[in-house]
Structure formats: structure tokens, C-alpha cells
Amino acid sequence: MRPDRGRIVPAQAAAAVLGGLLVAGLAIGIIARGLQGYAPDAANFLLFFLIWALAGFAAVQAPGPGKAWRRMLIAAGCLCLLWPLASYYPFVGSEMPGEDREGVTARMPAGMLAVSSWLALGLVLLAAGWHCGRRDGGRVDQRTLAERVRKGS
Q: What is the per-residue pLDDT for 140?
């Protein structure tokens, strides 16, 4: 057991506050875009702080600061990958019968750029989370599978 287990180090507190803010902002953005104004602003406001507190709690409960950042980055990456699903309705589903088709067609390039941007950001955050907080420092084992099996590692 590590001697600092149970204590919150400053880097872990930063992960709880800043990483939690990132996760909460992305989550509430997805929820607000998906609901399209069906939820009142006060509910979104309270939900934002609830998600921020839960993400901060998850970071504080991590074994160390690296793992705390790993949790926040992977959660933010997953939320970035979900963002296009929440953005799908405003670009495609808002077309009603009798609506001007030129307006919908004009919005499509902006929608495709937004989708590809969120997907790229999600992949970058997932890759950063994958490499952050690893015990091996992100080093790749260059040995072949047969060599690893022979040595038992």
C-alpha cells in the first residue's frame, strides 16, 4: 500500500476540478442538444454541478493523479464520440414537410465538419487517456509474442 493512499495530492485535485469540469461540460452539452430545449435551464444548471461532483469524486477515488487524469480523459473522449449523435437531430431531423430544402442542404457541410471535429477530438482524448497513468509509462513491448510466452511475462 502506498504511503500517500487516502490523501489527495494537488495533481489529483486538479484532475478532479479541471477534468471534472471538462467531463461535466461535455455531458451537459450532449444532454442539452439532445433534449433541444425540453428541459428547463435550472435543471441543466443543477445537472451540470451534479455531473461535475460525480466526476470529481471519481477522480479523487483514483489510486493516484495519473489514474485520475486517465479516468477524466477517457470519459471526456467517450463523450466527444457521443456528441455527433446528439448533433444529428439539428442537422437532419429538423427538416419538416414543406420546409425550405436549400437551408437544410446549406447546413450539411457545417454539420459534417462538426461531426468530424468531435470525432477527432474524441480520438485524441482517448489516446491521451490510454497513455496517461500507465505503470509502464506507455512504452510498447518490442518482443515477439513467442519471446513473451517463453519468459512468462
A: 61
Grid coordinates of 24: 461535466
Residue 119 sits in which domain range?
10-135
107 inside domain? yes
Q: How confident is the model over 16-37, as a mean pLDDT?
A: 86
Residues 80 and 26 sit within 8 Å (Cβ to Cβ) = yes
Q: What is the dihedral of CA 99, 101, 103, 104, to 10 degrees?
A: 100
Residue 137, pLDDT > 60, answer no
Query: In one letter, which amino acid is 80?
Result: C
Could you give the residue ranges of the DSSP H alpha helices within 89-135?
101-131
pLDDT the model gives residue 1: 40
Domain count, the chain: 1
Among 1-15, 18-32, 85-99, 130-144, the range of highest mean pLDDT: 18-32
Q: Is the torsion defined by CA of 60, 61, 63, 68 positive or negative?
A: negative
